[in-house]
Amino acid sequence: MMSKLNSFIVIGFLLLQTSGIAAQSNLEPSLQASLLDHRMAELHATKANGDYELAILGIIKSIQAGELERAVEEADTHLEKFPESQVGHLLRADALSALTGQLDSVAADAYLPDIRFDGLTHQMRNRWRHQTDHAEIVHEKVPASLLDMGDHAYVIVADMSQGRLYLYQNDSGKSRLLHDYYMSVGADGYGKQVDGDNKTPVGVYAINRHIEGSALPDLYGKGAFPINYPNRYDRYLKRTGYGIWLHGTPSDTYARAPWSSEGCFVLSNDDLLDIGKYVSAEARTPVILSDAIEWLTLEQLETRKRALVGVIERWRRDWESLDTNAYISHYEDSDFNLSKGGYALWKKRKELVNEAKTFVQVDLEIKSLFAYPGVDDMFVVKYKQRYLSDNFSSESEKEQLWKLDERGRWRIIYEG
Known about the structure:
The chain is an alpha+beta fold. The chain has 13 helices and 20 strands. The protein has helices at 7-16, 21-24, 29-43, 52-64, 68-81, 86-100, 114-140, 232-236, 269-275, 298-320, 324-328, 336-339, 343-355; strands at 2-4, 111-113, 142-143, 146-148, 154-159, 164-171, 174-182, 185-186, 203-206, 211-212, 223-226, 245-247, 259-261, 265-266, 286-290, 295-296, 360-371, 378-389, 393-404, 410-415. It has a five-stranded antiparallel beta sheet with strand order 4-17-18-19-20. Strands 7-6-5-15-9 form a five-stranded mixed beta sheet.
């Protein structure tokens, strides 16, 4: 099936699917435009893509306001700068169709396969919805997953339900939004389970490599940042697959449809090059791939962080107390270390070790603390541990996964 373009199809379909300013407001179009321009200028994170997204939204705004000649002029300017913008070509043809009442020589060729047409309108809808429904939220609040960035300079957080990638900077211990980007994910969505399911994983990962674009096929654009999927929690759940990358777009495409990859998460080449200035394999930049983001105020985030740090602190104090039963009670026995087994032997060894101690001192330095996406009540903490006793001392980097059990108790399900 092929889709023929006109403004009622493209813009009507786009706005009916959103709840933003233009879709809901009774304000005059000129006032709507003023408000939207203000939000874009004041609230939207700085982009490296030469105002690609702002231009797209401006064209939509002009068509919606009935300013069709202006829309065509804006589309022409946009396409001079971004000739590979498929959305730009779609909107130009749409505006010309509405302006002339019939398709001209440009719009006459604007027949698209339904799957491609749906992808382009889905992309426009995501971009519009971000500006009209979410722009203020993302600049006033912080993802609930970002409890403590620790010593990481930057963290990536993806909201796959909204098709948006956020780059946060560590600003003296506070998470500050630096940039945000339109993003594409798997053709069959997210929540990867098995190899070949065309879904993007949900979880906490890290960039572990960088591949230059010159070493890759054109599909991957200007480069790629592979992540460590599957992580240990994925393997515990028997999830399979490999090769999940953050990468760019082919040379003939500025931005892909929101759901279009084989499981990777994808930015435009401009945005990939921009984010590449901040993230790296050397820094093991964390990547939090979320099915959906819960947004909290800084005060709410701090309250939640204090509660979880308190959970960790009780575990630390019980370890120092040499009360072995109290210390061991913090660990999940039935699924110890993600089904690796050996709980009985581990418990016996801890009892023997503690019996031989006269004192234990444990100091912790949190390196990162993230709520785990896609799972109710679970968090992952990485920390530097300094251990001192009367007959042994050590310093090591550790990681724990904590999960709330059915009785409402926080328990360690992995430590290593």
